[in-house]
Amino acid sequence: MIKQNLIKALIGLMLFIVAMGLLGMALEEELVVITTWIVERIGFAGLAAILMVTDTLVTPFPPDILLVVIANSPLAEHWPVYVGILGGISVLAGMTGYGIGRWLGHFAWAQRLFGRFKEEHHAFIRKYGFWAIVIGAVTPLPYSVTCWTAGVLNLRWSVVLAASLLFRIPRLYLFYWLLSSTGKLLSVA
Fold first, then answer.
1. Which of 158, 160, 114, 156 lies closest to 133 in space, CA to CA?
2. Pick from 2, 3, 176: which is nearest to 84 by CA?
3. Phi-psi category of 154—alpha, beta or left, where left has phi over 0 and alpha has psi -120 to 50?
4. 151-176: average pLDDT
5. Rounded-to-integer distance, Cα 98 and Cα 157, Å
6. pLDDT at position 189, please?
7. 89 has a pLDDT exceeding 60
8. Residues 76, 70 contacting (CB under 8 angstroms)
9. What are the VTT domain coordinates in residue numbering (predicted)?
10. According to the per-residue pLDDT averaged within each range, which of 16-20, 56-60, 88-92, 126-130 is highest?
11. Alpha-carbon span 67 to 154, nearest angstrom
């Protein structure tokens, strides 16, 4: 099941990157105007706040959109710094979501919802919990949902933090590189 979901997520990721590359090529000038306007209005602090909210709460807003903003705005000049800061904020947001999940785990409805699953799959969760967080950290699957669930299921916080630090931050760097390079790669082909 994990292998199938990972393959589906990676296919979805590749389709997203190709679509963004094609859109970037077709609408390059418009994209630069829009992203520059966004950065001028809310600044990097606004982008960071958006990421904190979207990676803490369950929202349909992927962080990759913020990477598109960075890649197509004046922020691109210092992208390693900005992407690194966003990576740290994403991990902080994930750990905040984990805390929310731990808090929610005390409620009877959450115990009913997750209790039986937790009892039946306790050994699996303990053995593969790290890798479940990794999948949530690197794929387009909602990272916030992964972290909330880890909290409700009482996965050790150190496991969540380690998986997030080791995979979430590099994922943002990789996605930035892919998003910023795809248009160049597709225009050469």
1. 160
2. 176
3. left
4. 93
5. 8
6. 41
7. yes
8. yes
9. 70-177
10. 88-92
11. 32
Q: Looking at this protein, which amino acid is placed at residue 40? A: E
Q: Residue 120: CB partners within 8 Å, gap ≥ 6?
A: none
Phi, psi dihedrals of residue 51, rounded to the nearest 5°: -65, -40
**pTM given for the model:** 0.81
**Could you give the CA distance from residue 79 to residue 91 in angstroms, rounded to a whole number?**
18
The pair of structure tokens assigned to 145 is 């949902």
- Sole residue written with tokens 């001028």: 40
Those residues with Cβ within 8 angstroms of residue 4's Cβ, 6 or more apart along the chain or in another chain: none
The pair of structure tokens assigned to 141 is 């699957």
Contact 98, 151 (CB under 8 A): yes
**Domain range annotation of the chain:** 2-188
Number of Cα atoms under 13 Å in the Cβ half of residue 40? 7
The answer, yes or no, to whether residue 185 has pLDDT greater than 70, is no
101 near 150, Cβ under 8 Å?
yes
pLDDT score of 112 more than 90: no
- Residue 104's contacts (CB-CB under 8 Å, 6 or more residues apart) are 110, 148, 151, 152
Give yes or no for a contact between 134 and 163, defined as CB atoms under 8 angstroms apart.
Answer: yes
Residue 140 DSSP label: S
CA–CA separation, 70 and 125 (whole Å): 36
**Torsion sign (Cα): 66, 20, 78, 84:** positive
Q: State how far the alpha carbon of 151 is from the alpha carbons of 64, 123, 158, in Å.
A: 24, 16, 11
